[in-house]
Amino acid sequence: MDNKTTATKLPSAESSEDKEDEEEDTSTTDEEEECENEVPESEVIENAFLDELIFRLMTAKSPQAQSPGSKKSVEATPIIQVQISSEEIIQLCDLAIQSFACQKALIRFEKKDLPLVIVGDLHGQFRDLRSILTRCGPPHKQSYLFLGDYVDRGIQGIEVATLLLALKCKYPSKVFMLRGNHEDGNTCMSYGFYDECLERFLLDEGGGDKIWLKFLSVFNWLPLAAIIDSTILAMHGGISPHLHTLDDIDRISRPAIVPPYGLLCDLVWADPDDRHDGWSLSPRGISFTFSSSIVESMCHKLGIELIVRAHQLTSEMIRSGHKFFANGRLVTIFSAPNYLNMRNDACVMKISKKLHCRFLILRTMRKAMRTRSLAHRQRKS
Ligand SMILES: [Mn+2]
């Protein structure tokens, strides 16, 4: 029996560009050892197709300065083009649907599932996704919760979605994905992913349309929120006036498109905002904003201590990739550095076994990630 392939170690991404100038901050002690939490082999799916696909995605190299006519030589991050056929995407999407269909809309993590790395918006930044996986640890050792917005805006939504879905299928008890507002046909038709699919699979039978629709059929199954040790609630957008108990989230039926109003809509679209007290109509033209007082009362009502969400990159987040709100009851994280050439830093959040939260900063300029001991101690409620 070749059980060798089962325990396929995730190969390291090409990462020469971010090796040399890593920050010397070494405050990583107790957290580092915590990730040696290898997944039992019984929880790893043996599938040569997935192994090969993951290997190909993780080891592909960028064509490095090969394109003499490239206009934005210094600014642009070189693309890591990966050959993926439409048949492979269809096969992967079918596996992913099966995987998500046996998961509830609300994912429940217990203490034994910690430590956990939470990743915010990625928006097609494939190189940065690989960098996060390399830095934080491969998913056979380190658990991940991705908060959505895998596609659109950036140029490699196909690679980001494909790698995450393949990892999800391969390590179903270590990799978890939530839905973002961009994982929906109405949004990702307009912000890049549809065009990316059309262009890439132009000559395939059924064209890029077919592949885009196939991805959508997976997105419609994505879970919508996660609760960690009954104290930390995570989602892409925010809370909702329709959220009364956590069971309300479980009752959302899937597959579903994102509706124009209601609980599902708010979970992927809402934002915190203290410019108006209470609930207000969102300037996005869909869903609501909610103030600190709403966060406080929601935490009390649900019996939770912290809300973690993504969905926004505000000016205060440019140097750290995250921002607290409502006296530390809510934190926004954003994981796409140099998003739309904004030169922003980004971050991922790591929750330790003791429920301490810390932020690993993904630096834009020097492409180094350092740990900041911004340990946010969970307050007693
Ligand atoms: Mn979003």
UniProtKB/TrEMBL annotation:
- Claim: NADP is one of the keywords in the record: no
Transmembrane spans: none
Sequence ranges assigned to domain Serine/threonine specific protein phosphatases in this UniProt record: 178-183
Which Enzyme Commission numbers does its entry carry? 3.1.3.16
Q: Which GO terms describe its cellular component?
A: cytoplasm; nucleus
Name any one GO molecular function: protein serine/threonine phosphatase activity
Query: What's the short name of a Pfam family annotated to this entry?
Result: Metallophos
Question: Where does the secretion signal sit in this chain?
Answer: none
Q: Which InterPro entries match?
A: Calcineurin-like_PHP, Metallo-depent_PP-like, PP1_catalytic_subunit, Ser/Thr-sp_prot-phosphatase
Which UniProt keywords are given for this protein, alphabetically ordered? Answer: Hydrolase
Name the source's superkingdom: Eukaryota
This enzyme catalyses: O-phospho-L-threonyl-[protein] + H2O = L-threonyl-[protein] + phosphate
UniProt-annotated stretches for the region Disordered: 1-42
Composition-biased stretches (Acidic residues): 15-42
Q: Which PANTHER family match?
A: SERINE/THREONINE PROTEIN PHOSPHATASE, SERINE_THREONINE SPECIFIC PROTEIN PHOSPHATASES DOMAIN-CONTAINING PROTEIN
Q: Which family does it belong to?
A: Belongs to the PPP phosphatase family.
**What name has this protein been given in UniProt?**
Serine/threonine-protein phosphatase
Which organism is the protein's source?
Panagrolaimus superbus
